Amino acid sequence: MSDEKSNLPAISKQVTELVLAGSLSHAEQAFADAAEQHGDLAVAEVLQNIPPHVTALHMAGFDGGKLSLATLLVPPKAWADSLAYIAATWNEDMIEDDPERIAEGLFNHIHGVVFGTEDEERRRELLQEASATDHGATVFAIVFSLAPKEMLEVAGEVISKGQYITAQSSSDSDVVPLAVALAQASEDGWDRALFELFPEFRHSADLADAEYSDDPDEEEPSVLQRSTKELLYRLRKQVPSTRSASARGGRRNLGTGIFS
């Protein structure tokens, strides 16, 4: 095992360089080779050790129909840390023109990681770690903004049924099972995401009594909700810098150069 561990720094360096160079397929092959030679735990340890912005960049390239070993093996804390950087992978024009498409891609990313395992303990740890930070709350709020009415329904179910809640809703939204899983895994994480989406509320019991209306003719919405676009920009502003800014450096556009 010591010989295997001695190879991990070199693998971590190789993966980092490949991802930053844009060679995601080669980085994925490096993960596959590591898994074949040293086992899945070696891949998990590499993912634990590489910088979180590298993990974010790599996993962002495998959302949707493509599958990455990182999706299945990323440690919960490493994944939670990487979510802080995921907004830096988004095109600002797309945030303006098609925010729902970005939110759907983010949902696919989260769904793939969380439900890519049948291990309930791992699933719970993933949700707990991801929802424990400010950026995590915003990430879940972005996804929940795709189905705000259903989120209020789930809030009511959580209040009335607690841990016995099921993923039943008057809607067939795919977001509901994720919301239920989060509520079951972390009451605090669920509340934080809800209050990020519905900022005028501070108690989930108040949300449970709220009535959502999507009538476009209403002058004022009955429930104040942050839009998907607003939440995307809120997450973009939370992206940490991967290097110290020069004291005399010119002002950079939000999120640019984050992976350089």
UniProtKB/TrEMBL annotation:
Residues 239-260 are annotated as: Disordered. It comes from the Bacteria. This is DUF1186 domain-containing protein.
